[in-house]
Amino acid sequence: MIYFKVLWLNAAIILLLPIVFLQALWVRRITAVLPEPSGDRVLSSTGGKTVPKINILVIGDSAAAGVGAATQEGALAGLIYSSLSQRGPTRVLLHAKTGYKSEDVLNLLQQLPKQHFSTTLISIGVNDVTKFVSLRRWQRNISAIESLLSQKFGCQNILFTALPPIHAFPALPQPLRGLLGFRAFLLNKAMAARIASSPSSEMLYVRALKLGGTAKDVKQSGLMAEDGFHPSSKGYDIWARSALTRFRSS
Question: What 3-state class would DSSP assign to 63?
C-alpha cells in the first residue's frame, strides 16, 4: 500500500514539477538561513573525567544541532542535559550538522569510536524529504543506524524522532508544502514499520508540535523559529520534555 502511495506522489510531483521547482527556488531565495547555536557540544557534570551511567547521544540534522535557538542551552541537547544533570551524573554528546540526511548520520556513526550510550535521540528525515531520498534507501539507512547503535554502542534506548509536520510549515507555499508534507508522512510510516520489531527502538512523536495541522496554527504558536522551518526555544523545550519521558535507565 505504501509503495502505491509513493507512485501516486511521484506522479503528482512530475505533473507539478515546473511549479514546485520555481517555488523551491523562491523559498531558498527569501528564507533566512539561521546558524547553528553557539555553546558546548559535550556536556558533562563529571568534568569529563569519567563517563557516567547516564550517557546520552543526540545526533542528526539542523534540528538536532539546535538551529532556531540562540545557544545550546536553549536547544535540544542543552535542555536534556539541564534536566538530567539535576538527577545525577550526566553526559550529553551532540553530533549534528545542518543538511545531514539519514546516510550522513549512518556514516558519522561508523566513524565514531566505540563507546556505550544509555540513550540515543535521533533527528533525521527532513533533508531526506527535500533531497528526495528513495523510500527503500531511507528504510535501509534506518535499519543500519539502529543496528550500529545497538551493536557497536550497546544502546538499548533508541528514540527516532518522527518527522515534523512539513505540510504545515509556514515558510512553504502550496502545492510544494503539501507534496513535501506527504513525503514526510510516508517516511514516518516507513520508519515506524522498520523499527517496529526492535525492542530497543521506538518512534518519538512530539504531539504538541502537530497543533491543528495548518500553517496558520504553526505560525501563531510561537513553537517555530523565524525561518519557518526549525523549532524555537519554546519548541525545543516541548521536544526535550517529550523525549525525557521516554528515557530508560540502562
Answer: helix
The count of domains in the chain is 1
Domain of 232, CATH number, reads: 3.40.50.1110
Which residues touch 52 (CB under 8 Å, ≥6 apart)? 44, 45, 46, 88, 89, 90, 91
Which of 29-43, 145-159, 165-179 tops mean pLDDT? 145-159
Residue 183: partners with Cβ closer than 8 Å, 6 or more residues away: 9, 129, 132, 166
What pLDDT score was predicted for residue 211?
Answer: 46
249: in domain: no
Which amino acid is located at 59 in the chain?
Answer: I
Q: Tell me, yes or no, whether 205 lies in a domain.
A: yes
Instruction: Please state, in angstroms and rounded to a whole number, the distance separating the CA atoms of residues 231 and 223.
Output: 6
Tell me: pLDDT of 250 over 50.
Answer: no
Residue 250 lies in a domain: no
- What is the extent of the structural domain holding 20? 2-244
Which among 165, 250, 242, 159 has a CA at the least distance from the CA of 211?
A: 165
Place of cell 514499520: 193
In the numeric block, which cell numbers belong to residue 247?
Answer: 528515557
Selected residue with higher pLDDT from 221 and 199:
199
pTM comes to 0.89
Residue 181 lies in a domain: yes
For 43-73, b/e burial (b = at least 16 CB within 10 A) is bbbeeeeeebebbbbbbbbbbbbbbbbeebb
Which pLDDT score is estimated for 17?
61
Helices 102-111, 135-151: inter-axial angle, 10-degree rounding: 30
